[in-house]
Specification:
- With 109 residues, this protein is mostly helical.
- The chain has one domain (18-107).
- The chain has helices at 10-20, 23-40, 47-50, 70-75, 86-107; strands at residues 52-57, 60-65.
- Helix 2 runs antiparallel to helix 5 (86-107).
- The longest helix has 22 residues, at 86-107.
């Protein structure tokens, strides 16, 4: 009397394929943070809000405020109080962004 064990690892192939390029699912999470930042940033001319962009490549994504004065608004100066918009957008929406990433991963499997 013999015993044998057979495994099927085809699901791992799907997971590996999904993990090879995560830019799509990371973009979804970063878009949530970017929208929150756009909603929270102070608006005078609209240039700062319009400069908030998402970029995703491979296994990383970033939300950037590209206006030359964005850091001065976010962190303040010795003459101007900080008006944070990007950091709070990340902190307040990290759960929703993570959920969007997880949903994207699970949807790709």
């Amino acid at each position: 009397m013999g015993i044998s064990v057979k495994t099927n690892l085809s699901a791992l192939d799907a997971i590996a394929a999904a993990a090879a390029d995560m830019s799509g699912v990371l973009d979804a999470g970063a878009q949530i943070v970017a929208e929150a930042a756009r909603g929270a940033c102070p608006v005078d001319t609209g240039r700062l809000r319009a400069s908030i962009e998402v970029s995703a490549d491979g296994n990383s994504a970033s939300v950037t405020a590209g206006a030359p004065y964005a850091a001065y608004v976010e962190f303040g100066t010795w003459k101007m109080a900080a008006q944070p918009f990007l950091t709070p957008a990340l902190l307040n929406n990290s759960g929703a962004a993570a959920q969007a990433i997880i949903s994207g991963i699970l949807g790709g499997i």
